């Protein structure tokens, strides 16, 4: 395997595998990276005495009601200030309305997380 490091010593072949970034980022070390992604969080959970977790998967494009409502209000204000809103501004307005509607799912997930946390305390 070729090293990407430009600085080489005559003893670079003595490098520990766990310190070799080229190796760790290679396809050969994929299983090591996968194990690391399992073991490191488990170690951290033990350290902080976390016994149970629930993970919610969702879109990173959905925001809270307060964030989406603020964005919608700002776009409405921009539309009010201009005589004839551009097509781009109209699209932003429509997207902001959809974002407010979708924020319901963000809020539902937050509420469920709170209820589960309170229940299992």
What is the strand and helix layout of this fold?
Blueprint: H1 21-24, H2 30-47, H3 65-81, H4 87-119
Question: How does this structure look, described?
Answer:
The protein has helices spanning 21-24, 30-47, 65-81, 87-119. By secondary structure, it is mainly alpha-helical. It is flat, with a radius of gyration of 25 Å. The protein starts with 20 loop residues before the first helix and ends with a helix. It folds into two domains: 13-47, no CATH class; 65-119, no CATH class.
Along the chain, the helix and strand elements come as HHHH
Sheet having the most strands: none
Low-confidence stretches: none
Percent of residues in β-strands:
under 5%
Briefly characterize the structure:
The chain is 60% helix and 0% strand. By secondary structure, it is mostly helical.
Quick tags:
mainly alpha, flat, 121 residues, 2 domains
